Amino acid sequence: MSVDVFGRQLHSVRGPMRGPPCEGFCLTPEGDYDITNKRLCHVALPMDVHDAINLDYAEDLIKTVYPNAKEVG
To answer: What pLDDT shows up at residue 42?
Structure first.
C-alpha cells in the first residue's frame, strides 16, 4: 500500500475516478450515468437495445418503418 508525504496510507483506486456525488452527473449502482434534469448532447449511434438515441435517428427509423407517415410539427 502506498503512503503519502504525511505518512497516511493511500487506498488503491479501482474503476473510474469519480467526482463529488451527483455533481454534474450521478452514477447508478450498475455504473451507468443518471443525468436527471440535464441535457445529453452528441449521442452516438445505438449499439445495445438499452442505448439512448437522438432525434435524427428516431425520425429516420420512423420514416423507414412508416414511409407514408406524415410529419408532425
So the answer is: 86
